[in-house]
Amino acid sequence: MNQSIKAQKSRLPEIIAILLVIGAIGYYFYSSGSNGSASSSFTISSATSSVGANVLGLLNQIHSLKIDASLFQSPVYQSLNDFTVQVPPEPIGKSNPFVAGGAGVSPAFTASTSSTTAGR
Questions:
Q1: Residue closest to 106 by CA, chosen among 120, 119, 90, 87
Q2: How far apart are CA 6 and CA 12, in angstroms?
Q3: Cβ distance 119 to 102 under 8 Å?
Q4: Number of Cβ atoms within 10 Å of the Cβ of 105
Q5: Given CA atoms 49, 54, 57, 63 in this order, what sign does their dihedral have?
Q6: Against a cut of 0.85, is the pTM above it?
Q7: pLDDT of 93-107, one tens digit each?
């Protein structure tokens, strides 16, 4: 038992040094965190006010727009063609992609058994 007591006593300075380093790091982050948050909140509030001023300016420009409705009655506008392509609905794969194996699978197609056995 004397050896274990000696081992514990020899580790005591190491443990104290580690605790002091952790305490110093914690104090550094705690003290700089309170000062840093005040300056960052000031930066955020000034940035927010400048963004708000930009949005308000853009909103005023939108309200001042005047659209001439006669444009839609002109022959040039009426001659425009709509080339919209309808996208057909596609079958959906798994309802839950995180389910392992075949559980929760709604197959997009089914394989024919005659085509798989014909090669034998």
A1: 90
A2: 10
A3: no
A4: 13
A5: negative
A6: no
A7: 777 878 876 555 555
